């Protein structure tokens, strides 16, 4: 069955679904404590709890919540309707149509995890975006939470548009 239209939505349900990685990593931390208790038959030292909490907040919680909070505040209820004719950008009352004939090229920015067909390991590494450059020189950023396959949808809908892939090794959070 061919899909001729894709709607990308950014809303609270998307954000909550994306936070499942945080819950999975919290479960792993609990399993580490249980494993320690099972092996050594005593409660782990308080230092183990502090170190696990520090790494959990630093590497999982802060970057994930920062990106998702930014999406929710800045792009709440944004819809991007893709089809073979072009795409609609809908935000509130604003509705803009961009036609495929006006597209010069599409730059795809991927995290370092996406090269060699690896999938993203953490929730905040699933933040990809595409820059659509129009013939007029206008640049439009398309993205969505968990947007690993956004560029595949664009390639399917716009096979005649040139795509440039760029690997982003460091992603900075800017408000």
Describe the fold and architecture.
This protein starts with 5 loop residues before the first strand and ends in a 7-residue tail after the last strand. The protein folds into two domains: 66 residues; 91 residues, PH-domain like (Roll). It has a four-stranded antiparallel β-sheet with strand order 1-2-3-4. Strands 7-6-5-8 form a four-stranded mixed β-sheet, covered by helices on one side. It contains four helices and eight strands. Helix 2 runs antiparallel to helix 3. It is an alpha+beta fold and 175 residues long.
| SSE class | alpha+beta
CATH topology of the largest domain: PH-domain like
Q: Return the CATH architecture of the largest domain.
A: Roll
Q: Kindly, what is the distance between the CA atoms of the first and last residues, rounded to a whole number of angstroms?
A: 40 Å
Q: Kindly state the mean pLDDT as a whole number?
A: 72
What's the helical proportion of residues? Answer: 25-40%
CATH class of the largest domain: Mainly Beta
Q: Can you say what the CATH homologous superfamily of the largest domain is?
A: Pleckstrin-homology domain (PH domain)/Phosphotyrosine-binding domain (PTB)
Helix and strand pattern? EHHHEEEEEEHE
Keywords: Membrane, Transmembrane, Transmembrane helix
Organism: Elizabethkingia anophelis R26
Protein name: PH domain-containing protein
Pfam families: PH_40
Describe the structure using short key phrases:
175 residues; alpha+beta; PH-domain like; 4-stranded antiparallel β-sheet; 4-stranded mixed β-sheet; 37% helix; 28% strand; transmembrane
